[in-house]
């Protein structure tokens, strides 16, 4: 999951090389990722695509097809809503509200699959929120109500996607993610036609990297890890993503984050480590049976 987050974190750096319409970027990126996953996984991508029902007891029973569609559409919704939010509100507002996902994953995971967060993780949620506020305090702006609402909806979708993909762990999370890339590509086609992209060596290289590595490789790693981590654990690790974005910028441009941002980053890292400490000592949150036996 940490390697997956590392791939996700490169989006801000490479999108800077592309001056296209956001929906064109989102559509082509997802289209390339879908083709990449199909080439790498081939027929195995469709193995167990539709589970009979949500696995595990006392999890609530959910028909397999509904579970598959819920996972695919919530994941696709995250991609589309986040891109849209970045156009309507400030980037800091969009990221901060998007990373409300642990709250929604905690409640949905508890309600749907009985993966109850530990007391340590509730405390970690408070520290993550505090760290995010400090991290983005220099960039927070009024934004717009519509943009902020869409960014918050992206966070809800992301938390839900984590839970639905976890519920699909005995099926094929990879196939769910494959579908979640097909949806933005289909929705992005009209924008590709009305706002045709102008390819340059920089933009072509950037969109290929975004499609193959930033979401393609990340999706394969995500599908592997979500079968073995509780939804709340996976979404906690994702909170490291906004910290990695300025690391890439620092490496390539030498721009140093503000002191408050660095303090916020330290708090977030500490909160994530605290949330994982219980699992490391007890094994909770890691499905050892699946780890030994799964080939999906």
In short:
With 296 residues, this protein is mainly α.
Walk me through the structure.
By secondary structure, the chain is mostly helical. It has one domain (2-293). Helices cover 73% and strands 0% of the residues. The chain has 14 helices and no strands. The two termini are 16 Å apart. The relative contact order is 0.21.
Tell me the number of structural domains. 1
Report how far apart the termini are: 16 Å
Question: Count of helices?
Answer: 14
Largest sheet: none
- Would you list the SSEs in sequence order as H and E? HHHHHHHHHHHHHH
Query: What's the quaternary structure here?
Result: single chain
Beta-strand proportion: under 5%
Q: Helix proportion of residues, in percent?
A: over 70%
Class derived from helix and strand content = mainly alpha
Radius of gyration: 18 Å
- Report the principal-axis shape: globular
Low-confidence stretches: 53-61, 278-296
Average pLDDT, rounded to a whole number, is 78
User: Count the strands?
Assistant: 0
How does the SSE layout of this entry go?
Elements: H1 2-8, H2 11-15, H3 22-41, H4 64-88, H5 91-98, H6 101-113, H7 119-136, H8 145-167, H9 173-194, H10 201-226, H11 231-237, H12 241-253, H13 259-282, H14 288-293
List keywords for this structure.
single chain; 296 residues; mainly alpha; 14 helices; 0% strand; globular; disordered C terminus
